[in-house]
Structure formats: C-alpha cells, structure tokens
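User: Here's a chain of 104 residues. Predict its fold as tokens.
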Amino acid sequence: MEMKLIFTNKGKNAIGNFENDELIEVFSRYSKTLMKKYDLVVSVPSEDNRDITADGTINVHLADVKCDVQTFFKELARDVKVPLKKRLDAGETLDGVFKTELVK
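Assistant: Prediction complete.
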C-alpha cells in the first residue's frame, strides 16, 4: 500500500527549513518508533521522495497492515510536529502538518 502525505500550508513552511534527507530521516525515525505500538511496516523510500519541499508531499509505503492506518498517521503527525516546530521562526505556529491520501 502506498500513501501520500500532503503537507498543509503551515506544514510546507516548516519543511522548507529542512534538507530532503533530513525529512526522510525524521519521518523514518518517528514511523519506526510508532511501529512498536502499531502492527504495520512503514518505509520512506528516498527514490520516491526526491524533492519533498518542492513537491509538498512525502510518499510512504505500508506493508503487513493490521491496524487502523488513519490512527497511525494521526499520531505520526503529532509526533513529527515536534522537530518541525523547532525550526519555525518565533511566533509561527504549526497546527496540522499533513493530510493523507491513498495512492494504491
């Protein structure tokens, strides 16, 4: 299964402060942590995410899904908000980070 995470306007502002490989690392690390709690396998392939900031999206692959995917991504959005907020300018807020879309 493939999912596309589409960044909100504020999410796009936040990811603009990161390099592409940093974003892949952040999403991979936080997904890996959540996989201990949720029964699924998530990968963030670099070949599908060549320019996350310009695209405004990040593609993730899911396998062996035996849990509620929407709940997983809701928690992932909450978790990745922490490192993203650290690079925002003072006074900027970050409510929603991304919305999900099923690709296949």
